Amino acid sequence: MEIKITLTDKPHAKPDESALGFGKFFTDHMFLMDYTEELGWHDARIVPFANLELHPAATVLHYGAEVFEGLKAYRTPNGKVQMFRPIENIRRMNRSAERLCLPEIDEDLAMQILDTFVSLEQDWVPSAPGTSLYLRPFLFGNDPFLGLHTINHSTYVLIASPVGSYYKDGINPVRIMIETEDVRAVRGGTGYAKCGGNYGASNRAGKKAEEKGYSQVLWLDGVERKYIEEVGAMNVMFMIDDEIVTPALTGSILPGITRMSCIELLRKQGYRVSERQISVDELWTALAEGRLKEAWGCGTAAVVSPIGELAYKDQIYTINDGKIGAVTQKLYDTLTGIQWGKCEDTESWTHPVPAKN
Ligand SMILES: *Cc1c(COP(=O)(O)O)cnc(C)c1O
To answer: How far is the CA of 256 from the centre of ligand 1 (A)?
Structure first.
């Protein structure tokens, strides 16, 4: 498909790379494309970054028809730019879209859009250690009336934000609170879809955890509140004795691309990795008996985030003396090494971004 490009005549100065933070700055352009049943996807265009114009009755504003993705473009030591497993984000976005009855995007077209957009904005990919260009594709229902009905008009948008290192002062283990009241998702719901609505459901518990000084919530299953699901915006892994356990994908958990990559790398390195149910009771027993050696979250933003403390009801446990464990550290080094092009990509996971033409 032809992508029409309208360049800005007011390019912005790039922000200071030591003060990027997350999602505060945006590049000079954005990508937009519309869908209607009659025309399919059409009017693919890159335009100067600006506010979106929406009808006040637009479906997304009332009925939550929205899915999104999150991936990064990395600057390698030789100055080139690459993405990490972008095809997996495209496939997941289509699975999310299917769940919300939003139109899917052909994989080749979605890849062409990513390549064209990131190539155009590649000067915005920062180069300080740990920094990257965060890419946020999102897709939403955009019909201009309030009746509940099949979505006809949808819009796909891609924006990009240069982001700082998640670990400004080294990798500090995080404190996590197990949530016992609110649930994030149930089987049959939208837990496996990356959609804004899941975050809406998570807000209250997240706020409560923050007020108590915890960085994120660890969710339990929505039916029995007994089995571990995932952390805020990360999947979770536990090393119990010599087994690495991560909750199985039963429909209510987001299938993370970092999770999948961790599992593949760990198995290759000879670790025993089990995708299975794990209850809080099992976790607590392992903690009490000193068999829970390491725990970490994994997701695109932090890559791998060691968990130093877990709270459940009135009990608080420290894991590995609140320090990052050896397996967590090695996993972090291997994954970040591949993503930033500092070590060999033995898995062919990286995708070079075409040079600017
Ligand atoms: C995006 C996300 C993750 C992590 O997925 P990655 O593909 O590894 O970035 C985990 N949980 C939730 C709820 C998410 O939205």
So the answer is: 5
Token pair 């080094």 is found at 333
CA-nearest of 224, 221, 219 to 208 is 219
Reported CATH class of domain 174-339: alpha beta
Ligand 1 atom with the smallest distance to the CA of 299 is: 8
pLDDT, one tens digit for every residue, the chain (357 residues) = 999 999 999 999 999 999 999 999 999 999 999 999 999 999 999 999 999 999 999 999 999 999 999 999 999 999 999 999 999 999 999 999 999 999 999 999 999 999 999 999 999 999 999 999 999 999 999 999 999 888 999 999 999 999 998 877 778 899 999 999 999 999 999 999 999 999 999 999 999 999 999 999 999 999 999 999 999 899 999 999 999 999 999 999 999 999 999 999 999 999 999 999 999 999 999 999 999 999 999 999 999 999 999 999 989 999 999 999 999 999 999 999 999 999 999 999 999 999 876
Contacts with 318 (C-beta within 8 Å, 6 or more apart), sequence order: 308, 309
Boundaries of every domain in the chain: 4-164, 174-339
Fold of 4-164: D-amino Acid Aminotransferase; Chain A, domain 1 (3.30.470)
